[in-house]
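Progress note, sequence design subtask.
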């Protein structure tokens, strides 16, 4: 019996979905984080929970954690922070791992990341804090999804709770920072723009001087 051409097509689509969904997840969360960063000064005082939803980073939690309800902040921040780590882990597991293994010395790197001692150290680090490098290292190794989530979820809950407690410990200082940023947002944007233009001008002047030194003198023969 001849197999239908739809079967290999479905397998190909499923394979592509497995490879693409972690990158798509990271892209969506990164876009939300960029929007949150651009609107930090406005949302920090007017809609702190929305800011946490857009950008649940440690700095944002420390900034607005004292002005938001702990329960709601945990319900919003913990899943989103965990999804960021899931995305990086998935990208490394489905894409980077195969690419690294093809490069010279890449197979040794994958084997080193797959060692029990390395995996155990990285997983226990997830209980304290997580970052893209740790997620990618675990995804590039041979850590199963379930084992990664068993360490990631309690670690995210613990670290998020600690950030919120720290935010309440420095609440007066954080509130003053938010108020100052909110009242000086325009000046801050203009200052950053001026610094960026100044850096471009300095770089252009350096390039012009370098080309002038490298140019041959009029009396030099070719």
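Output:
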């Amino acid at each position: 019996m001849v197999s239908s051409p739809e079967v290999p097509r479905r397998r190909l689509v499923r394979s592509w979905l497995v490879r693409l969904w972690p990158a798509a997840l990271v892209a969506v969360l990164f876009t939300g984080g960029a929007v949150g960063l651009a609107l930090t000064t406005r949302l920090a005082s007017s809609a702190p929970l929305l800011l946490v939803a857009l950008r649940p980073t440690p700095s944002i939690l420390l900034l607005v954690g004292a002005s938001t309800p702990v329960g709601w902040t945990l319900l919003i921040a913990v899943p989103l922070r965990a999804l960021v780590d899931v995305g990086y882990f998935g990208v490394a597991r489905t894409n980077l791992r195969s690419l690294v293994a093809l490069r010279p010395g890449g197979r040794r790197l994958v084997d080193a990341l797959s060692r029990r001692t390395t995996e155990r150290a990285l997983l226990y680090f997830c209980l304290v804090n997580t970052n893209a490098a740790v997620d990618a290292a675990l995804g590039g190794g041979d850590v199963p999804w379930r084992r990664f989530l068993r360490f990631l979820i309690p670690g995210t809950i613990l670290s998020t709770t600690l950030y919120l407690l720290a935010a309440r410990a420095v609440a007066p200082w954080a509130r003053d920072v938010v108020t100052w940023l909110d009242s000086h947002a325009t000046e801050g944007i203009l200052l950053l723009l001026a610094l960026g233009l100044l850096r471009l001008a300095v770089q252009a002047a350096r390039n012009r001087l370098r080309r002038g030194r490298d140019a041959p003198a009029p009396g030099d023969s070719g």
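The radius of gyration is 24 Å. Work on this subtask will continue into the next period as scheduled.
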